[in-house]
Design a protein that fits this description.
Layout (H helix, E strand, L loop, with lengths): L1 E6 L4 H11 L4 E7 L8 H4 L16 H5 L3 E4 L6 H10 L3 E4 L9 H8 L12 E3 L2 H9 L3 E3 L3 H15 L8 E7 L14 H4 L4 E2 L7 H13 L5 E7 L6 E8 L7 H8 L6 E3 L17 E6 L6 E8 L3 H15 L16
Parallel strand pairs: 1-2, 1-3, 3-4, 4-6, 5-6, 7-9, 11-12
Antiparallel strand pairs: 7-10, 8-9, 10-13, 12-13
Helix pairs in contact: 1-11, 6-11, 7-9
């Protein structure tokens, strides 16, 4: 049985990770940490987990965590980068769901996150945990940086176009919308029901922290720098991301529907919908799945790609479990066979 430790299990990604691992036949969570909730039973904070875990939150202890086979960080940014070096030195394998190791350039990270990176020397060890791109590297990694939710939906939507050199890399556009859980569990006026309900708004228009992560990943695929205009929006719902992506075609001779179907044919968690069918957030809710649809409106030179995920599953905790399965040589879909919830 794989011994799992979770640092910071009190937020939405933490409880989603616990939900998925509860039915993972090869995994046992043996340690879950929270300084604020130390001593409190897990099922007292999250009654949905009653009967699945007999655990209480503890203070982070490196020796106890290092004894685990895998340690997940379900923490805000700037937590993992202070603890991960010590865990790696002790021989632990780490999957970080925060943004601390996603951006390879420490100065670029600092510019977007407003503080110095605490362990820049560890950045070269981190493998970006998008399995559809980096499966082989993930398998041998000691540190995996799990992608953000917006970056997952946007990159999966654009990868085939950029890999084949079919679009203008300098004029990419992503208009993406997320449910309120993407903002985390902390108390903020902007997250109140009376603020979110019956409304739809853009935010981070001048620059969102996920932008450099997305551009880094897309540039790796394209083999050259890319420029993306990224505008996130807040939807009046709890879960889900819908990314609508626009790119100008430089080669219109390729059957794009066939390209996408072939590109993702062997990917267990990417579903390219039939021509003329477009994804909805409701059909991926609760599932570790990205659904993609595409169209070239009026047969002009702009392709529109629509990509949907559950921000807490394929956009966070489900993808983290997918990475764990790859790292440990397990079937990639182990513990991730949940069907999307309807209605």
């Amino acid at each position: 049985m794989i011994k799992i430790g979770i640092v910071g299990g009190t937020g939405y990604t933490g409880v989603e990770l616990l939900r998925l691992l509860a039915l993972h036949e090869d995994a046992e969570v043996v340690a879950i940490t929270s300084r604020a909730e130390s001593g409190r039973r897990l099922d007292d904070l999250y009654p949905n987990l009653r009967g699945y875990y007999d655990l209480a939150f503890t203070e982070p202890d490196v020796a106890r965590l290092a004894a685990c086979d895998v340690v997940f960080f379900a923490t805000p940014h700037n937590v993992a980068m202070n603890l991960v070096p010590e865990l790696l030195a002790a021989g632990a394998r780490v999957i970080d769901l925060s943004a601390d190791y996603r951006i390879r350039d420490a100065e670029l990270w600092s510019r977007w996150y407003g503080e110095p990176h605490a362990s820049p020397d560890v950045l070269p060890q981190a493998v970006y945990g998008l399995p559809e791109l980096n499966r082989e590297q993930i398998a041998s990694a000691s540190l995996v940086a799990c992608p953000g939710c917006y970056p997952t939906s946007v990159q999966l939507g654009l990868i085939p176009l950029l890999a084949r050199g079919l679009v203008d890399t300098q004029h990419l556009i992503a208009s993406a919308a997320s449910g309120a859980s993407g903002a985390g569990r902390q108390a903020k006026v902007d997250n109140l029901l009376s603020e979110v309900a019956d409304s739809f708004k853009a935010y981070g228009v001048s620059g969102h922290r996920h932008l450099p992560e997305i551009e880094q990943g897309l540039a790796d695929v394209a083999g050259c720098p890319v420029q993306l205009t990224f505008v996130p929006h807040l939807l009046p719902m709890i879960r889900g991301i819908h990314a609508t992506l626009f790119a100008r075609l430089v080669d219109m001779s390729v059957d794009l529907q066939a390209l996408y179907e072939e590109w993702y044919a062997e990917e267990p968690f990417v579903d390219v919908l039939p021509a003329g069918m477009f994804p909805q957030t409701r059909t991926v809710k609760g599932a570790n799945r990205c659904q993609i649809g595409l169209q070239v409106p009026q047969g002009r030179d702009t392709v529109v790609v629509m990509s949907t995920i559950d921000n807490l599953v394929k956009g966070a905790s489900g993808q983290a479990v997918q990475n764990m399965n790859i790292m440990l040589g397990l079937p990639e879909d182990r513990g991730l066979q949940q069907v999307g919830l309807l209605p």
